[in-house]
Amino acid sequence: MGARTTPVTGSRIAAGLFPCNLIPEEILTDHPDRFRAIIVESGNPLHSLADSPAMREAFAALDLVVVIDVFMTETARHADYVLPVPTQFEKLEATFFNFEFPRNVFHLRRAVLDPPRDRCTKRRSTHASSRPPGPSTRASSSRSNGPQPTDDPRSRLRSSRVCSAGRS
Question: Which of 121, 130, 126 lies closest to 162, judged by CA?
Fold first, then answer.
């Protein structure tokens, strides 16, 4: 079996990765297998990669953009959904050291800070009602515990907007 490649540029995919500066070329085309959605985790490609204008144009052409990040970055502001996550200080952190084989060490650190009281700790996401340019529009809430998720998708979306308010 040959190496996996991207559908448009034919760039080799190694360990699930390919050169990120090819993203606009993989999106801005009429190719039937072009990229149509993207998930960005803890990154800001609209700001940190070469040719930011082309990257912004490409992201605007996508059907779906999801960002998972601690901060409301430039990329998050252009996303359809933003899934905020706790910082490294608000959750358990684990590190595995295997430099002294066969003696391996696993270090588990407890959270050193409680999450902010005004942030929902259950389900946190937001949907930007209008895409670029400009900040995402989110509802705000004075409830300290945040809304509880339900089985109703519309209610969940309203709840997640409240949960992620004030994360910028």
Answer: 126
